[in-house]
Design goal:
Elements lengths: L4 E5 L3 H7 L7 E4 L12 E4 L4 H11 L2 E6 L6 H14 L3 E4 L12 E4 L2 H7 L6 E4 L17 E5 L9 E5 L6 H11 L3 E5 L8 H9 L3 E4 L9 E3 L2 H10 L3
Parallel strand pairs: 1-2, 1-4, 2-3, 4-5, 5-12, 6-11, 7-8, 7-10, 8-9, 10-11
Helix pairs in contact: 1-7, 2-3
Length: 243
């Protein structure tokens, strides 16, 4: 194990794979959203740092020697804070950048840049399935009269007369997605381009049924000192530090 104390910024399944291999002197940091693991050997820290300045101060005060950013591809602000704070504290910053999904033959993707684009793209549909996380929950009072929303996210929520909220965590199967699409009469999917296999089944089912996917484009992410495409490659690099 490397002698450098590691701060792992997580909240994703990929980050958890890395965290499970870290020993007690290292820190796994979560923003406080979703389930907090209690079976790790490393220290688990929940909550923010107070922006890039607060994170830089934490790195210095805690003697952190390496930051590993394994946050969600859409957590652009956290990644920017990590890169800036690491430079200020003179600590290397590595990042795990999960590869994006790519459209395949038969896919009907409608690319959008934000919530306004999502609303416009959904105007012709009646039964969307949102897989964006919590963002749709703040818009439940804005549902057009001709629509009923199904929102899947990590946390339970009462929903409304015009929306069903499903709390569920991947991985999801194609059989399970077919059953959900049937039960909710889904006619369009709204998704982030998260990449990975855990939530990819919805795209396969949309493809086989000819359903469109309104796909939110990824935000640009800050450059890191080293970038990796899998938790396994991150761990190999961490192990190499101790040789």
């Amino acid at each position: 194990m490397t002698a450098a104390r590691i701060l792992l910024l997580g909240g994703t399944g990929d980050a958890l794979k890395i965290a499970r291999q870290l020993s007690s002197e290292h820190v796994y940091s979560l923003a406080g959203l979703g389930k907090v693991p209690h079976d790790l050997s490393c220290t688990v820290r929940v909550g923010g740092f107070g922006g890039e300045e607060g994170l830089a101060r934490y790195l210095r005060d805690e003697g952190i020697g390496l930051v590993v950013d394994a946050t969600h591809p859409y957590a652009a602000q956290i990644s920017a804070n990590a890169a800036t704070a690491s430079r200020a504290a003179r600590v290397p910053c590595w990042a795990m950048r999960r590869a994006a999904w790519e459209p395949q033959a038969g896919d009907d993707w409608r690319m959008v840049n934000g919530w306004g684009g999502i609303v416009d793209a959904l105007a012709a549909f009646a039964r969307p399935l949102f897989t964006l996380g919590r963002e749709p929950l703040v818009h439940l009072d804005e549902i057009p009269a001709h629509q009923f929303w199904t929102v899947r996210c990590l946390d339970a929520h009462p929903g409304s007369a015009r929306a069903r909220v499903i709390d569920a965590r991947g991985p999801f199967t194609e059989a399970g997605e077919r059953a959900l699409f049937d039960a909710q009469a889904i006619d369009v999917i709204v998704s982030k381009n998260s990449g990975g296999r855990a939530t990819e089944a919805k795209l396969a089912v949309a493809r086989e049924r000819g359903l469109p996917v309104v796909m939110l484009r990824r935000p640009p992410l800050s450059a890191a000192d080293r970038e990796f495409d899998s938790p396994e490659s991150v761990w190999l690099a961490i192990e190499a530090l101790s040789r």
